[in-house]
Amino acid sequence: MKERILTGDRITGKLHLGHYVGSLKNRVELQNQYETYLLLADVQALTTHFEKPELIEQNLRNVALDYLSAGINPDKATIFVQSLIPEIAELTTYFSMFVTVNSLRHNPTIKSEAKERGFQDMYYGFLGYPVSQTADITFCKATLVPIGEDQLPHIEQTRKIVRRFNQLYKPVLLEPKPLIGDVPRLIGLDGNNKMSKSLGNAIHLDSTQEEVNEKIKKATTDPARVHKMDIGHPDICPIYAYHQTFRKEGSDEIYESCKKGQIGCMECKLKIAQSINDFLEPMRERRIVYQNNPKMVYEILMSGTEKAQLVAKETMQEIREAMSMNYF
Ligand code: ATP
Ligand code: MG
């Protein structure tokens, strides 16, 4: 039997370049080798968007289109909707009996996300989302989880929960490993934060050529550079980070010219905007096909969800048996 991959995205908005280099690229590359499960995390989206569930609904189709246009093959990968697998919620409840509040409070990603969102007192569901992610990963017995760097503490927490469950009851769960992408944390257009759906600092995978050009034009660069001939600091410039990511061959030259004040920010931006547009072009072409056929997208999600439901039922039977809860 092929090993399984589980990963996914909160459907809080359209996917961006950070998603691609952090996780999506690995998913596309590994879908032939692994049985791949891709989760549209609507429940997890509620941890920060419970007041606006209608936004989540709108994004469901967008994220599915992002997957398909990025090269996910629906004949190989199983794309499914989290809230339609009630076993995930059930497993989350069981795991939460033996996960301490302090272990969640000390999780560095939880801490920084709570700070970013200005949470004084954390919501129960938000604090516990790494437990729910553990249920996502374990219900389908995934052994590999392609993610960006911010997710590493959660995988560590998942591994601990799996070990604890197996030790408390029976060894039915598998310990997964993380797989970090080429770029573990792509910086956002603001130059301060990771590129993120929620922070308005992203270039989305469905951007038109004009949108890419406009966003790159407005992006923050090295604040010390006022004139073209000023000495630059490419290490702190998001535009240089994009050169390294999307224009690898030319990026050493850019680095040197920026440091010596031989290339202006405008010229540097034009080059990278062109490369990002070249990179997105095949995705745009694939997107049109799926966009014009919403019924096909709907059927892909339906059949993926049905397949995940069967796997969840099987695992849940084992879980209940391990916990001596198969009463009748
Ligand atoms: P939100 O702001 O709503 O949390 P997000 O942009 O952080 O959105 P998620 O759905 O939380 O996106 O993350 C999905 C996956 O993409 C995770 O594996 C995450 O690590 C990865 N990822 C997200 N942003 C980046 C980034 N800028 N660089 C690398 N990987 C990223
Ligand atoms: Mg996130």
Automatic annotation (TrEMBL):
GO terms for molecular function: tryptophan-tRNA ligase activity. Keywords: Aminoacyl-tRNA synthetase, ATP-binding, Ligase, Nucleotide-binding, Protein biosynthesis. CDD domains: TrpRS_core. Its EC number is 6.1.1.2. InterPro entries: aa-tRNA-synth_Ic, Rossmann-like_a/b/a_fold, Trp-tRNA-ligase, Trp-tRNA_synthetase. Pfam families: tRNA-synt_1b (PF00579). It is an enzyme of class 6 (ligase). SUPFAM superfamilies: Nucleotidylyl transferase. Belongs to the class-I aminoacyl-tRNA synthetase family. This is Tryptophan--tRNA ligase. It comes from Jeotgalibacillus marinus. The lineage of its organism: Bacteria, Bacillati, Bacillota, Bacilli, Bacillales.
